[in-house]
Write a structure and sequence with these properties.
By secondary structure, this protein is of the alpha+beta class. It is built from ten helices and 28 strands. The strands form five sheets. Strands 11, 12, 13, 14, 15, 16, 17, 18 and 19 form a nine-stranded antiparallel β-sheet that branches. This is Serine hydrolase. Keywords: Hydrolase.
């Protein structure tokens, strides 16, 4: 189950868009983002404000299988996690659970759960992704890329849990974990009668009027057909029902509008209180599975989702009684997800542009050709007859195409190659490879990069590269007398000094603060943007 992190990259902003205040406005913004997009994605969206709802549908192009019906059920992916959180809130409100319960209390007797000393994994650690569990169980029991969780059983999940070593001390940091949410999903199902789908229907879907929302048992809504970003049809994903709370709910746009309205306080009072509980801050920028973000001075509660063939977004602004729902019949996780259109529909200043196929400049094709270390693999890129081809040894070669956002993409599967802009006449030194919701930084083999430098005496200590996330670093350097910052796979942006060991990148609303050791040497940097905080050490 993919999710689109809102941290790890600098948000691109631009003025000139207005919030959607009518169905025509919703369609206008969908057109600005998707018309001519190379994916051919079909999108359904709704804006809810002060009790009013405006809906629209738009397709990027035409496909042989046509657009999904207005009442088709989409896979909503990880937005399902917020629904599982609602059930957890109900268990807490009833006194049956506490957020400080060790999760072992709600799992089968004898289940082995990893721990560090006396510190156990608590319910709150799972709903805030601070458990220390990795993204996925090590053994998915024969799942395929097309349907990765199909053969994972409850027993198999618990067996993987018993063998798992935690990645970091529980509670110390947030790292998004579908594994942890599968465990929580199973625990919730056991506490609510042994059937997660029945619990969701009785406690959430029916009270909110989500008449066709389901996990495995459709209630009258025909399933939308999912797609890869190249337009190829993608099979639906499946999983054991009691593990499905991490991301396997299917719902129509009307279902999700009803859900968003419930999150804004409509519906039965007791349920409204439960839903409000899930939105309250707990740790590391999370409520109960909801991501809490401050963007352009506005407090948002949001979650994106993605499966092998679908994308989704629910964004709430409770203080303004406003919400947005966006559903797409295409897997867009590797292309940035739906955050840009979601923010624009809320009235935030965002640069909306489709990804249209374009021919790359000949100089860029030549600069990209070469050998790269891509994690444990070596990827070779070469030019032939004006085309770029790529290959990992032992695998089939594939063609790389280029789009209007400056990224390359392979034909035949979902991934994205984002090169760091090379200097004039220089080869590309690094690129970011995004696939499956994750990212890997690739470096040209045999190339020794010059370290970032600064000559200005007041800025000199800040020069360097800081690793803020596993696949995201920030370089700080000087160009033509101007202080610059550059994130992985992104263009350099001018910054200005606004305090001791503090700089601002005002064009994207970000701040970087530097940390020093006892000897006064800068050893780390902290990126603050949109209510998020990323800290990383200087790369040696």
């Amino acid at each position: 189950m993919k999710r689109i992190p809102l941290a790890g990259a600098l948000l691109a902003l631009s003025p000139g868009l207005q919030a959607a205040g009518s169905a025509a406005d919703v369609e206008r913004l969908l057109a600005a983002r998707f018309d001519g997009d190379r994916t051919g994605a079909c999108v359904q969206a709704a804006v809810i404000e002060a009790g009013k709802v405006w809906r629209a549908r738009r397709c990027a192009g035409t496909r042989p299988d046509g657009a999904p019906a207005a009442d088709a059920a989409f896979e909503i992916g990880s937005v399902s996690k917020t629904m599982t959180a609602a059930l957890v809130a109900g268990l807490v409100d009833s006194g049956r659970w506490s957020l400080d319960d060790p999760i072992t209390r709600h799992l089968p007797e004898g289940t082995t759960v990893p721990r560090q000393g006396e510190r156990q994994i608590l319910v709150r650690d799972l709903v805030t992704h601070t458990s220390g569990l990795p993204a996925l169980p090590a053994d998915l029991q024969g799942g395929t890329q097309a349907d990765p969780y199909a053969r994972l059983t409850e027993a198999g999940l618990l067996a993987s849990l018993g063998k798992q070593v935690l990645l970091f001390p529980t509670g110390s940091q947030a790292a998004y974990s579908n594994f942890g949410m599968m465990v929580l999903s199973l625990a919730v199902a056991r506490s609510l009668g042994g059937d997660l789908e029945a619990a969701l229907r009785e406690q959430l879907f029916q009270p909110l009027g989500m008449g066709t929302a389901h996990v495995a048992k459709p209630l009258g809504a025909a399933a939308a057909q999912g797609h890869l970003p190249d337009g190829t049809q993608a099979p639906g994903w499946t999983v054991a029902t009691n593990l499905a709370g991490f991301g396997m709910v299917k719902a129509t746009l009307d279902d999700m509008v009803a859900y968003a309205r419930g999150q804004l306080g409509e519906g039965p009072p007791a349920l409204a209180a439960q839903l409000r509980r899930t939105q309250q801050p707990l740790a590391q920028g999370y409520g109960m599975n909801w991501m809490l973000r401050r963007v352009q001075g506005r407090d948002l509660v949001m979650h994106e989702g993605g499966t092998g063939g679908f994308s989704s977004l629910v964004a709430l602004e409770p203080g303004a009684q406003r919400a947005v729902v966006v559903l797409a019949d295409t897997a867009l996780a590797d292309l940035g997800g739906l955050g840009d259109i979601g923010f624009a529909l809320l009235g935030l200043d965002m640069r909306l542009q489709p990804r249209r196929p374009v021919e790359p400049p000949a100089a860029l094709r030549q600069a990209l050709a070469g050998d790269y270390a891509l994690g444990p693999l070596r990827l070779t890129i070469w030019e032939r007859d004006g085309r770029l081809l790529a290959q990992v040894p032992g695998q089939s070669a594939f063609e790389l195409r280029h789009d209007s956002r400056g990224d390359f993409y392979p034909l035949g599967f979902s991934a994205l190659l984002r090169p760091e802009p090379p200097g004039a006449g220089q080869p590309v030194a690094r690129f970011t490879w995004q696939q499956g919701g994750g990212a890997v930084l690739a470096r040209r083999v045999g190339r020794v990069e010059a370290p970032p430098t600064i000559t200005h005496p007041a800025w000199r200590d800040w020069a360097g590269e800081f690793q803020l996330a596993p696949q995201f670093s920030l370089k700080v350097f000087e160009r033509d007398g101007q202080l610059m910052v550059q994130g992985s796979g992104q263009p350099a942006i001018a910054a200005e000094v606004t305090g001791p060991d503090r700089i601002e990148i005002k064009t994207v609303g970000a701040v970087v603060e530097f940390e020093r050791d006892a000897a006064g040497k800068v050893t780390a940097a902290v990126l603050l943007q949109g209510g998020q905080r990323l800290r990383g050490s200087r790369v040696p």
